[in-house]
Design goal:
The protein is mainly alpha-helical. It is 55% helix and 3% strand. The chain contains eleven helices and two strands; from the N terminus they run βαααβαααααααα. The protein has a two-stranded antiparallel ribbon with strand order 1-2. The longest helix is centred in the last third of the chain and has 17 residues. The radius of gyration is 21 Å and the shape is elongated.
Length: 199
């Protein structure tokens, strides 16, 4: 076993982390464990095995992003739900995804997302695509109005304006813009409660 300096590897991994890589995704791409990657970055050991170093140095930002789904389809699904009047806070309560994370995706700031987040957002879209938020209180009505105004200002289409066959292709852009959508009824606050109860 040959040891080499850990510093170039540490700096490379830090660049991959800044590009959106996690310890787990970097480890997967390099064929090593997430804890090994974590220790190299945080333990400040002066050396690392040469084979591990070579594999980590070969990992690129593009390689990391290819392991995680593109956020484009999820972004348009969430924007379409905003165009139905749903807020990021309401979507967060239904999915368990932090509101700040959903806001970053809706704004188009996320470079990658986890497969689990994509799955949760897609399930929510499937449950709410033709539903508007309930307007039981003045606060709920105001929140829905604000969401609709945001969608209109940004020209985000409602769910029916998205092409499901093309939606998850990188670079997808809807051909339809914002339109007012009535929906078929009010969305359940917790659309996955029955599924959780059954499991």
């Amino acid at each position: 076993m040959t040891l080499v300096s850990a510093e170039p590897v540490r700096q490379h991994v830090l660049k991959l982390r800044a590009a959106g890589g996690t310890y787990a995704s970097i480890g997967r791409a390099a064929g090593t464990g997430a804890m090994t990657v974590h220790r190299i970055v945080n333990a400040r050991r002066p050396t690392v095995q040469d084979q591990v170093a070579a594999r980590l140095l070969a990992v690129t930002g593009a390689g990391i992003r290819s392991l995680r789904p593109s956020p484009g389809g999820t972004m348009w699904r969430l924007r379409a739900l905003v165009a139905m009047g749903h807020t990021c806070s309401r979507m967060a309560a239904a999915t368990g995804i932090p509101p700040a994370t959903l806001r970053r995706i809706v704004r188009g700031e996320a470079l990658t997302i986890s497969p689990q987040l994509r799955q949760a957002a897609t399930a929510l879209f499937d449950a709410w695509w033709d539903k508007t938020p309930p307007g039981r209180t003045r606060q709920e009505k105001r929140a829905a109005d604000n969401a609709l105004q945001r969608a209109a200002l940004n020209n985000w289409p409602p769910p029916a304006g998205l092409d499901e066959d093309e939606l998850d292709r990188p670079g997808y852009q809807p051909q339809c813009g914002w339109r007012y959508a009535r929906g078929t009824g009010a969305a359940d606050d917790y659309p996955f409660a029955e599924r959780k109860a059954a499991s």
